[in-house]
Specification:
EC number: 5.2.1.8
Oligomer: single chain
Number of helices: 4
CATH topology: Cyclophilin
Number of strands: 9
Radius of gyration: 23 Å
Distance between the termini: 58 Å
Enzyme class: isomerase
Keywords: Isomerase, Rotamase, Signal
Shape: globular
Protein name: peptidylprolyl isomerase
Pfam families: Pro_isomerase (PF00160)
Length: 198
C-alpha cells in the first residue's frame, strides 16, 4: 500500500500521454508489364514521386500502354545502357504533360533497374519511359552543372524481369530507322498488357 506522501508525489507527476499506434505503411503499388519478350514487374515510388507515378498509372489504368512497344535500345557497353517504351506521341493515347520531379526533390537515383520518364524540356514528359541497365548517375539532376541540369524523373524500380530488360537491350537495332539512328529496334518488343497487380 502506498504511503499518503508517496501517493501525493505521484499525483503531481504528469502522466505520459498515450500515443496512437502508427498507421501501417500502404502496400507498395506494383505494375506488371507483359511483353513478347517476357514479364516485367515495376514497383512504383509513389511517396517520393507522386506526380510521375500518378501519370504512369493513368497510362496503365487507361490501358494506353497496351499494344505499344519497347522501341529503343541505347547500348553504351555490354550490360550497360537503357531501353525505352511508350506511346511515341500517338494521338489517341497521349495525355497532357506533367510537372518535372527532379531527383534532387525525390531523393531517387538512376540505378540499375530504375524506371524514369523521357522528356525534352522540363515539364514536357508524357507517356514514354526508360529503364536503366546499370547505374547511371549522369541522368540524375545536378545543380552544379550549367544549363538544363534537372536530369530525368526516376519513379520506380524493376523488381522482376531484369533479364527481360537485358534481352531487350541486346535486341538488334536498325541503323537507318527513326529519329535515333542505330538505336531503334529492328523488331520492336510488343507490350501485350500493363496492369496493376492485386
Amino acid at each position: 500500500m502506498l504511503s499518503p506522501l508517496f501517493a501525493l508525489l505521484l499525483a503531481g507527476v504528469p502522466q505520459a500521454a498515450s500515443t496512437p499506434a502508427a498507421a501501417p505503411a500502404p502496400a507498395p503499388t506494383r505494375v506488371a508489364i507483359e511483353t513478347t519478350a517476357g514479364r516485367i514487374v515495376i514497383e512504383l515510388a509513389r511517396a517520393q514521386a507522386p506526380i510521375t507515378t500518378a501519370n504512369f498509372l493513368r497510362y496503365v489504368d487507361g490501358k494506353r500502354l497496351n499494344g505499344t512497344n519497347f522501341y529503343r535500345s541505347v547500348k553504351v557497353a555490354p550490360g550497360f545502357g537503357f531501353v525505352q517504351f511508350g506511346i511515341r506521341n500517338e494521338p489517341k493515347r497521349i495525355l497532357p504533360p506533367i510537372k518535372h520531379e527532379p531527383t534532387t526533390q525525390t531523393g531517387l537515383k538512376h540505378l540499375d533497374g530504375t524506371i524514369s520518364i523521357a522528356r525534352l524540356a522540363p515539364g514536357s514528359a508524357r507517356g514514354d519511359f526508360t529503364i536503366m541497365v546499370g547505374d547511371q548517375p549522369s541522368l540524375d539532376a545536378d545543380p552544379t552543372k550549367p544549363g538544363d541540369n534537372l536530369g530525368y524523373a526516376a519513379f520506380g524500380q524493376v523488381v522482376e524481369g531484369k533479364e527481360v530488360i537485358a534481352r531487350i537491350l541486346d535486341t538488334a537495332t536498325d541503323p537507318n530507322a527513326g529519329p535515333f539512328k542505330g538505336e531503334m529496334l529492328a523488331k520492336p518488343v510488343q507490350i501485350t498488357s500493363a496492369a496493376r497487380m492485386k
